[in-house]
Design a protein that fits this description.
mainly alpha; about 150 residues; 4 helices; PHA_gran_PhaM_N; 2 domains
């Protein structure tokens, strides 16, 4: 660096930034003080830890809200399925005995699994019929004489 401050480019930039009311950024004039660098590193690591903690809290909040949404949808579906079953099986003359109602309430998982199995069987049968129909069409096309 020159002894004349008017010809020193760093002083020129420092004066230019100072006149605008901004301090000179640390990247323009890096520090050579090891203690200052250690302090900056520790500060940035503290900020990094804080940001990681906030990120993990945000991810946990999102996951809990997603689980809450899935749970509510499952409860709504089970409620709709249960109300559909009770409407179909309710006697026309009135209500059944109290012990029968408790027995039916205890068996809802069994009924739910049976209904799901019936739905899956119906879907697989429909898919098999569709595949068989497509295979029949392909074999009929292959059996045509080519001329």
């Amino acid at each position: 660096m020159s002894a004349d401050p008017s010809k020193d480019p760093i002083d020129f930039v420092r004066n230019f930034w100072g006149a605008m009311g901004f301090s000179l950024p640390g990247m323009v004039t890096p520090t050579f003080d090891v203690d200052e660098l250690g302090k900056r590193i520790n500060d940035l690591k503290a900020v990094e830890g804080w940001l990681k903690m906030n990120l993990s809290m945000l991810q946990m909040t999102i996951q809990s809200l997603e689980m809450q949404c899935v749970t509510l949808n499952a409860v709504r579906t089970m409620s709709a399925m249960a109300s559909g079953e009770t409407a179909d099986k309710s006697p026309a003359g009135g209500e059944g005995s109290g012990s029968e109602a408790f027995a039916q309430a205890a068996l809802w998982p069994w009924h739910l699994m049976q209904q799901m199995q019936e739905n899956l069987n119906a879907q697989s049968e429909a898919g098999a019929e569709k595949d068989a129909g497509a295979a029949g069409e392909n074999s009929a096309e292959n059996a045509k004489p080519r001329g």
